[in-house]
Amino acid sequence: MSYRILMIAPTSFFSDYGGHIRILEEARSLRKSGQTVKIVTYYKGRDVDGLDIVRTPPTPWRAHYEVGSSRHKIVFDALLSWTSLVTALRFRPDVIHAHMHEGALIGSMLSRLTSAPLVFDFQGSMTSEMLDHHFLRRGGWRHRFFSWLEDRIDHMPRIILASSRNASDVLAHKFGVDPTRIQTLPDCVNVDVFRPREPSDEPEVAALKARWGIPPERTVVAYLGLLAPYQGTDLLLEAAQIIGRARNDVHFLIMGFPSVDLYRRRAVERGVADHVTFSGRVNYEDAPRFLRVGDLAVAPKISETEGCGKLLNYMACALPTVAFDTPVSREYLGEHGIYAATGDAEALAAAILQLVVAPEHGRALGGWLRARATERFSWDDTSARLLNIYAAVTTPVSRARAVAPAATRQIH
Question: Of 338, 360, 337, whose CA–CA distance to 347 is shortest?
Answer without folding.
Answer: 338
